[in-house]
């Protein structure tokens, strides 16, 4: 929004004054930042007057932790200055008296393409920021068919479908994402993952218990222990260990 009426005596408002006593300067700034967010997103409110935002986004804008945001919202909720509903990681906000201080610009209909072009610049709204973040996350979590994450996921699927041709086709991108977590966060070497996949899918007991990468990740340590007891005599341990060492160096380079 362009502007809203802000009285020079706002700091003496009983509710805001009490909020300042309770939360310090944050009690004051949080109220007006919420007003600004509500005004900027005015065209996105639902029929009941609620604006739906992520709790993390609101916390970032108020420069407060999520628990502190909830405390501030509960304070203003008691006085009906800001009606809020928290559902998991989402926040519904409604400011009943907002229309009394809103400018005509805020109450406008959505701008036409001509108006947007003529404005020179358009401020990014919270909804647009969230959509951009989702799009960025989608791009970051997309693995090409030549990536090691995708290749290992496909390897497990091929083993399974070799035994069960009618096995329901999974979303390999989700499997690849799980493999990525195994590599980057669990610090599992790629060559070791490959060997564990082959071993468990050749094991009469485990082959029907490991039917997804998520299950592979969950049972990984147990599989390693079982493998250690049943290592085939022709397995080149020295070469395998060298491969793990090289793979660990590669992972460290990726995660730096």
Q: What attributes characterize this protein structure?
A:
single chain, mainly alpha
Largest β-sheet summary: 3 strands, antiparallel
The CATH architecture category of the largest domain equals Orthogonal Bundle
What name is given to the CATH topology of the largest domain?
Arc Repressor Mutant, subunit A
CATH class of the largest domain: Mainly Alpha
What is the terminal-to-terminal distance?
41 Å
Number of strands: 3
Instruction: State the helical fraction.
Output: 55-70%
Walkthrough of the structure:
The protein is mainly alpha-helical and 256 residues long. It is built from 13 helices and 3 strands; from the N terminus they run ααβααββααααααααα. Helix 1 (14-23) packs across helix 2. The longest helix is centred in the last third of the chain and has 19 residues, at 237-255. It is elongated. The protein has a 3-stranded antiparallel sheet with strand order 1-3-2. The two termini are 41 Å apart. Helix content is 58%, strand content 5%. Strand 2 and strand 3 (90-94) form a beta hairpin. The protein has 2 domains: 10-125, Orthogonal Bundle (Arc Repressor Mutant, subunit A); 148-255, no CATH class.
